[in-house]
Amino acid sequence: MKKQAYIFDAKTLVRQQHSAVLSTHSQSVEGYPFGSIVPYFMTPEGDLIIYISQIAQHTRNIKGNHKVSMTVFDNLADDSQASGRVTLLGDAHLIEDESLKAQYFSLFKQAEAYQQTHDFMFYKIIQKRVRYIGGFGKIHWINQEDWQLDVSNWQQASKGIVEHMNKDHQEAMQLILAHQFNIEAQQVSMLSAFCEGVHLQGDNNIYYWPFDNTCLTSTQVREQLVKATHDARAGLISVAS
């Protein structure tokens, strides 16, 4: 399996899931790891963003030692040993970034209420190395330089893609959801656009739809969305006939 293919598969798994096991260094029981479940999303570059309370045990642990890991897996899989999982090792740092904040709240709307309680703050986990297991015999270490993408201009492009789709292409998103997820959604919106895929909301549920390959420009994303719309329309016509 070529390197770029398994990196794409690993990132797809990370983007499809919305919570993971955060492992920190225990400050109260020295020398032992401490695991907890936290929501997250991954930036276009490949870092993870978490929103955690300052009174939580894992936050206290991070303040004592910022080296952490996040383990992502498909919790609906029948056989956890045969399904994919990703462990991301990195350094957790407190951040203030309005664009990342807005992106997080678009995916986790209930978290906006946490701003008034328990001193929740954003942390970025900057990746150092990634372990991907795609099933039996599919085991890969991924170095930081291969995992991280240089997407310095992506933020503006992503914003434009999302705004354009929500303004002008409601039907296209409904078709994609129907074809890819068998969902007949009345209310649809695009929440995010990444190099590897997009988050779509259908009614009250959020779905991640991966592209066929990594896109580094808005033109490439448009080509993927146009193709997906055409495929969806053709597929649905075929089923109906």
TrEMBL record:
Residues 158-227 form the DUF2470 domain. SUPFAM superfamilies: FMN-binding split barrel. GO terms for cellular component: cytoplasm. It comes from the Bacteria. Residues 10-147 form the CREG-like beta-barrel domain. This is Uncharacterized protein.
